[in-house]
Design brief:
With 339 residues, the protein is an alpha/beta fold. The chain is built from 14 helices and 11 strands.
Length: 339
């Protein structure tokens, strides 16, 4: 009798947790996302768009934690940190590690598509066709392309190429070659260091979209804003390959077939909206001047910028890569978007 009672009590104790907490309920898969922007930046908004989609698509099965402001990885090590599993998903800017993705640099080459949405649609297909082999060490979840960059300076208004000669301008990646072609002095540095560099006079200005005037408080140190719209950079949302492969089949299928279209589109929309807001922000801020180049001057700038494409292609050919073909295919892909 006593053994029967003990068996009954033991069985009851086993049943209680099942009744209270459910049978066989697994803990959610945890994913870490990292980026270099501040917690209130558009980078955070872009990462959150992806994180929210993932959690809503798989409620209770995935929990995403976002680490902004380089708290997990700095911008320059975002790719390697993802490969090595320090983060699960990262916001990677290929131009910040120039030479690591030589073929992907073709996206940065001038001319640039005015709309981030249009550019993202074009280059997602371009990536799949011509560039995917450079990214085999990670799982690429999403790609988007920013709006074209402009030149913002502290003391010297830039109205012609003559004005930029000898001026130190913060750039990165292909922007270094473009600035050399303009006659300026390119200075590469991480974006978070740019504010102090301009404030202290280490550089005269920076080449970025208007959106960054607000995101990085560059409005405080840049008074003149020249609309050149020369080139635009791509951004890759990449995932650690081992982590991706460890996911259940249905989640991997959704990451392959559903997530890219959504995250690409939302990220590009955020860029287009942020750029419009950035222009208005500058326009409404006292003491700031937006400089629009004349059509003739604009052509001079565009021609000078595009002069880097030939040497870039030749440098890839010297490495055994199809530089000329990449430039040709790029120009065909963007033709209808370029005036």
């Amino acid at each position: 009798m006593r053994k029967t009672m003990l068996a009954t009590v033991s069985l009851f104790l086993l049943i209680i947790p099942v009744l209270l907490f459910g049978a066989g309920k697994d803990a959610p898969i945890e994913l870490k996302m990292s980026h270099h922007g501040a917690a209130e930046s558009k980078n955070q908004e872009i990462m959150k768009a992806g994180a929210d989609w993932i959690e809503k698509r798989f409620p209770g099965r995935i929990k995403v934690t976002i680490y902004p402001s380089q708290t997990l990885l700095n911008a320059a090590s975002a790719y390697e940190g993802t490969v090595n599993g320090i983060t699960d998903i990262a916001y990677v800017i290929p131009g910040w590690t120039q030479g690591r993705f030589p073929k992907t640099e073709v996206i940065d080459l001038p001319p640039a598509i005015p709309s981030a949405v249009d550019a993202t649609n074009v280059y997602w297909e371009f990536y799949k066709k011509f560039l995917a082999d450079e990214w085999k060490a990670v799982k690429v979840l999403s790609i988007h392309v920013q709006v074209p960059q402009n030149i913002h300076t502290k003391k010297t208004p830039i109205r012609t190429l003559e004005n930029i000669k000898g001026q130190k301008i913060r750039v990165y990646g292909v922007g270094k070659s473009i600035m050399n072609a303009f006659g300026g002095i390119p200075v590469a540095m991480p974006m978070p260091e740019s504010y102090e560099a301009i404030r202290q006079g280490i550089v005269a200005g920076i080449m970025v979209p208007f959106a960054e005037m607000k995101s990085y408080r560059l409005i405080d140190v840049c008074n003149y804003h020249t609309q050149v719209y020369i080139h635009a950079s791509p951004f890759f949302m990449v995932m650690n390959l081992q982590k991706y492969n460890s996911l259940p089949d249905d989640i991997r299928k959704a990451f392959d077939e559903e997530l890219p279209a959504y995250w690409n589109r939302e990220s590009a929309r955020i860029w287009d909206r942020s750029e419009q807001e950035g222009v208005e922000f500058v326009r409404k801020t006292p003491g700031h001047q937006i400089i629009t180049l004349s059509p003739a001057e604009r052509k001079v700038w565009n021609d000078r910028a595009k002069s880097i494409n030939g040497p870039w292609a030749q440098s890839l050919e010297a490495k055994g890569l199809p530089g000329k073909k990449l430039v040709e295919e790029k120009l065909k892909a963007i033709e209808k978007y370029i005036k």
